[in-house]
UniProtKB/TrEMBL annotation:
Annotated organism of origin: Ruegeria profundi
InterPro entries: Acyl_CoA_acyltransferase, GNAT_dom
Domain N-acetyltransferase per the UniProt entry, residue ranges: 2-148
Name by which UniProt lists this protein: N-acetyltransferase domain-containing protein
PROSITE patterns hit by this protein: GNAT
GO MF terms held by the record: acyltransferase activity, transferring groups other than amino-acyl groups
Source species, domain of life: Bacteria
Length: 179
């Protein structure tokens, strides 16, 4: 049976290998390495309060993982998190795990008082989980986006847009090539 959890400490060491395998299979070796390295940077260098990790486990098998990291908007009181990266084990894809994991992660963030979640990816897929295209005026990305149509967001509570001012990401995301 699938178990969704935000208790990830016991699994930390296995997460970069999951990202590496999943992204190597879907996008090639270079992307596999890049996302795996991003995930270990996020896990090792992000302050505890700025990182949320959710896992999908089937018994003792790690089936999926999402990393959420804080985006700081110093001129706005709202709490904003970035959802990235997202991976579902290759042989378990398209069985609903991704949707369940996203929905669990958003519920967990809502309980923690998070106001708004952004992501940067495929609008067709993330639209199924309530993400809508947003503009760089609605919420400024921390760096220049190479694919602005992939900038997506959703409110977890009543919220007026825009979110004010520039944003700062976790140091692991401080690389222009990731945007
Ligand atoms: C993208 C990913 C996270 C989706 O997880 P998943 O468990 O395979 O997806 P689900 O089974 O929850 O998909 C649910 C729905 O989304 C659709 N879907 C899945 N991947 C999709 C994609 N890349 N684009 C559009 N729709 C997609 C499914 O067909 C399904 O549609 P339906 O509900 O209408 O039948 C997973 O396939 C994955 O890890 N891919 C490789 C890594 C990646 O691309 N990560 C995302 C970028 S960070």
């Amino acid at each position: 049976m699938l178990n969704l959890t935000a208790e990830y400490q016991a699994w930390s060491d296995e997460l970069p290998a999951l990202f590496r395998h999943v992204f190597t299979t879907s996008e090639g070796e270079a992307e596999g390495l890049a996302v795996s390295s991003l995930s270990s940077d996020l896990l090792n260098s992000t302050p505890k309060d700025d990182l949320v990790v959710v896992l999908a486990l089937d018994d003792r098998l790690l089936c999926g993982c999402i990393l959420f990291s804080r985006l700081h908007y110093d001129q706005d009181p709202r709490q904003v998190f970035l959802m990235s990266p997202v991976a579902v084990r290759t042989d378990r894809q398209k069985t609903g795990i991704g949707q369940k994991l996203i929905s669990f992660g958003l519920g967990h963030l809502r309980k923690q008082g998070v106001d708004f979640v952004v992501t940067y990816g495929d609008p067709a897929y993330y639209g199924k989980s309530g993400f809508q295209p947003i503009t760089e005026t609605d919420a400024q990305p921390p760096m220049t986006l190479s694919m602005p149509h992939g900038w997506l967001g959703q409110s977890l509570r009543k919220s007026n847009m825009p979110i004010k001012g520039p944003s700062r990401c976790a140091s692991a995301f401080n690389k222009p090539e990731l945007w």
